[in-house]
Amino acid sequence: MSHQSQSDDSAPTPDLLREQIERTRDELGRTVEALAAKADVKEQAKEKAVEAKEKAVEAKEQAKEKAVEVKEQAMEKAVEVKEQAVEKATLAAEQLRHKVTQAVELAKDRTPDPVLDKTALAAARVRDGVTRAGHLAADKAPEQVRDKAASAATAARANRTPLFVGVAALAVFLLLRRGRRSK
Q1: How far apart are CA 86 and CA 23, in angstroms?
Q2: 18: burial class by Cβ within 10 Å (0-12, 13-18, 19+)?
């Protein structure tokens, strides 16, 4: 029997064989660990539960952030709408005040002097009557009522011009209406 010897180039050396065996063992170990991990259903369920919990926490945080953002936007919009409403109300009040002033002036211009004199006299009588009634009521009214009346009088004094314009417009309207009936 003859034994053929292999050439040195084609035969692996013992060190090379050991390295190949070691690599194969490492690969086999990793493969076994991966298969064991896939077979461990309990651990997979735990991992999925942790992932789901993390996603839920993240979604909750995002929802809170969105709620805060929406609330801030709503507050900004409310302030904007309020400012617009105040501007429109102020403009409307100015326009109304201007139109009432024009109407009073027009009524004064078209009203004969005797009617204006009668209106002034009637207004003076009303003022005197109101003053007397006020003194009488103040003497007999309880203190709470007097306090409220004083605060109402203060408010009326603070808004004198619109009050006078309104009263004058009412008086002119009533006089013109009365004058038309008597014709």
Answers
A1: 82
A2: exposed
CA distances from 99 to 30, 92, 176 (A): 93, 10, 18
Question: What is the model's pTM?
Answer: 0.35
Cα–Cα distances in Å, from 130 out to 112, 116, 134?
27, 21, 6
pLDDT tens-digit profile of 38-49? Answer: 777 787 788 889
Q: Indicate the residue type of 88.
A: K
**Residue linked to tokens 């005797």:** 114
**132's tokens:** 């007397």
What residue type is 72 in one-letter code?
E
pLDDT (tens digit per residue) in 92-121:
878 888 887 888 788 778 878 887 788 788
3-class DSSP state for residue 7?
Answer: coil
In terms of C-beta density within 10 A (0-12 exposed, 13-18 middle, 19 or more buried), how is residue 172 classed? buried
